[in-house]
Structure formats: C-alpha cells, structure tokens
Design goal:
Layout: H1 3-8, E1 27-30, E2 32-33, E3 44-45, H2 47-59, E4 63-65, H3 67-75, E5 82-89, H4 92-105, E6 110-113, H5 135-143, E7 147-150, H6 163-181, E8 187-189, H7 197-205, E9 210-212, E10 229-230, H8 237-254
Parallel strand pairs: 1-5, 1-10, 2-3, 4-5, 5-6, 6-7, 8-9
Helix pairs in contact: 2-4, 4-5, 6-7
Length: 258
C-alpha cells in the first residue's frame, strides 16, 4: 500500500489490534518550550527554534493537530497532511510560548499533564526545576482548543507496576483530571515511555481512547501504544526532514519496551 493510500484509507482504531507500520502516523513529542539556563535531558526547545519547526511543518504542507483529532481523522480516511503534536509533563512554557505560535498557524496539539503536580514543578527529575501549568494556564489552553490528556498521577514508570499502582496512575488520574478540567479525558501518555502489557491493558480498561508511547515494538503498535518521534533544540529543517522520512524504519529498528 502506498503512503498516500495509507493516509487516505480508513483505519480501524477502535480496538486493541495491531497498526501496521505503513499506517502509523507521524506524532512529534515535545516537552518544554522556553529559554532555560540548564537542560541536561535535552527536553526543552527555545521559542525561536519551535517557531522554525512549526514553519517547517507549514512549508511541507503539513498541519499540526492534537492526537485525538489525528486518530479521529485516521478513522475516516482523512489523515493525509496531519501530524500529531504532543507536549509531555505540562510546562508553563507551553502556554506562554508554544500556544501563540500554534494559534498563529492554525495548529493544535495535545498536552499531557501529571495530575498531582498542577501548579508545581517537575520534581520527578534530578535536573533543574521548571514550573508546571497552573489551573489558569490549563484553562487558557482549553479555551484555545488544545486537547488535555493524562501523563499519570505522579510520573512514575509503569512497566512492572502493581495493579494498585496502575489504578492510581492510569484510572484515577483520568477521573481526577476530568474533574479538574471539566471535560472528558481521552488520551494518555506513558511516563518515560515505560510500558508493558499490563500498563497497556490498564489504559484501555480505564476508558481512554488512545495512548502515546515512545519506542514501541512493531507487533504492539496500535491505538494504545502509538509511537512518537522526539524533537529537540538541535532539530533544524534538515533533521526534521530526515525524521519525517525515516520515522517508520526508526520505529521498526528501535521499538522496544523500556
């Protein structure tokens, strides 16, 4: 099947079946967009670099959307030209710097929040502390049409977690976040890309519509383990072109359970 046809043919994303590599959408994974002094994990891009990356999408005839919108478009064979944009952890820089750039270009995105840390900092990291979205900033994102998803309750690794911990991190975080934002939560992102069969089953059982991973074994790629491509400060146009061209072979080579 050609890539053009794979983007225009309907895709069954309502179950937990396998999604072939040829049907896998491009989903970009960001974290923070800000000017920071230290970034040892390389998860922040400056507002200027982010604007360049969004301009790259636009020049290629692509439109950035939230993952729920992307999944729905794929179900109906309308995925051509759409790229998923995601932001993990929920940093204030996303509201302050990414949102205006998205709005200027008519793009959208999904922001995955750590539900116990709204208004706090990324204290699960050993590196510098950055402010996380407070309630007012989350509301601004919602008013702009940005999708809000869960990134667990405490940002712990889910592979190997107990059934009780999975309930807290997956099901309870969905209920808590829905109460906080006043609307349903359909998307989940595995913290640190940490996923196994039990975590994937827990996400589906909790009622989510999809889940984003990082590196995923090809046999497990599907609506509850959608691979994503990391984007960082070093990704200028040439690197973005390479990532777009090679993301499917890269997933096939690197797919694994962390």
């Amino acid at each position: 099947m050609s890539l053009l046809r794979s983007a225009t043919a309907p895709v069954d994303l309502d179950g937990d079946g396998r999604l072939p590599l040829t049907r896998m959408p491009l989903i970009l994974m960001y974290h923070n967009v800000d000017e920071v002094q230290e970034d040892p994990c390389n998860i922040c891009v400056t507002p200027r670099r982010f604007a360049e990356q969004m301009a790259w999408l636009e020049r290629r005839g692509l439109r950035g959307v939230g993952v729920a919108e992307l999944v729905e478009a794929m179900r109906h064979g309308r995925g051509r030209g759409l790229v998923g944009l995601t932001f993990d952890d929920g940093y204030e820089g996303v509201s302050a710097h990414a949102l205006p750039e998205l709005a200027r270009r008519g793009f959208n995105a999904t922001v995955f929040l750590v539900t116990s840390q709204l208004g706090g900092t990324n204290d699960w990291d050993e590196g510098p502390r950055w402010p996380l979205l407070a309630a007012a900033s989350v509301e601004a994102l919602l008013r702009a049409g940005v999708e809000i998803g869960s990134h667990s309750d405490t940002h712990r690794h889910l592979a190997g977690a107990s059934a009780r911990d999975l309930t807290v991190e997956v099901a309870d975080s969905r209920a808590k976040l829905a109460a906080q934002i006043g609307r349903d939560v359909v998307g989940f992102a595995y913290p640190n890309g940490s996923i196994d069969d039990a975590a994937r089953t827990a996400v589906r059982a909790a009622g989510y519509g999809y889940a984003c991973a990082v590196h995923t074994p090809p046999p497990f790629i599907g609506p509850f383990a959608l691979p994503r491509v990391y984007v960082g400060q070093q990704d200028r146009a040439a690197r973005m072109d390479a990532k777009r061209l090679l993301f499917r072979p890269y997933v096939a080579m690197k797919g694994r359970y962390p």
